[in-house]
Amino acid sequence: MKALLQRVSSARVEVAAEVVGRIDQGLLVLVGVQPGDDQLLAEKMLQRLLDYRVFADDQGRMNRSLRDIGGGLLLVSQFTLAADTRKGLRPGFSTAAAPAEAETLFNWMLARAEECHAPVASGRFGADMQVHLVNDGPVTILLET
């Protein structure tokens, strides 16, 4: 599983010009599910996202987590994050989980996030989404399990 987290001052996801997910300060996380990923890995990734220290403390150092600041979490499934780019000029997607498998695990991760954190929002799995964000910093970090 790969998660590209971006520290944002605001973010939203639109599908067909309708806002389906929105947060203020927090993390926008693009999630790429790979073959063999399971609930144990998804739980590990979720807890890491909630506890990863990318927000400034009183001295301006990245010592505070999403939990610490009570910020929003916006999860967006993105199979292209799992692309194989090692050769050629076009990505391969054999390294991404099958859509049904990825959707099940992404929805499970989203439900777990809603159980242990607020606010939580998401995009719409498999939809053509428009993601709008104000990257704060900018801070963008790739996490892998």
UniProtKB/TrEMBL annotation:
It is found in: Cytoplasm. A motif (Gly-cisPro motif, important for rejection of L-amino acids) lies at residues 137-138. GO terms for molecular function: D-tyrosyl-tRNA(Tyr) deacylase activity; Gly-tRNA(Ala) deacylase activity; Ser(Gly)-tRNA(Ala) hydrolase activity; tRNA binding. It holds the Pfam family Tyr_Deacylase. The keyword Nucleus does not apply. It catalyses: a D-aminoacyl-tRNA + H2O = a tRNA + a D-alpha-amino acid + H(+); glycyl-tRNA(Ala) + H2O = tRNA(Ala) + glycine + H(+). One of its GO terms (cellular component) is cytoplasm. The keyword Cytoplasm applies. One of its GO terms (biological process) is D-amino acid catabolic process. It is an enzyme of class 3 (hydrolase). Its EC number is 3.1.1.96, 3.1.1.-. Gene3D superfamilies: D-tyrosyl-tRNA(Tyr) deacylase (3.50.80.10). Keywords: Cytoplasm, Hydrolase, RNA-binding, tRNA-binding. Transmembrane segments: none annotated. A Gly-cisPro motif from one monomer fits into the active site of the other monomer to allow specific chiral rejection of L-amino acids. Homodimer. Belongs to the DTD family. An aminoacyl-tRNA editing enzyme that deacylates mischarged D-aminoacyl-tRNAs. Also deacylates mischarged glycyl-tRNA(Ala), protecting cells against glycine mischarging by AlaRS. Acts via tRNA-based rather than protein-based catalysis; rejects L-amino acids rather than detecting D-amino acids in the active site. By recycling D-aminoacyl-tRNA to D-amino acids and free tRNA molecules, this enzyme counteracts the toxicity associated with the formation of D-aminoacyl-tRNA entities in vivo and helps enforce protein L-homochirality. This is D-aminoacyl-tRNA deacylase.
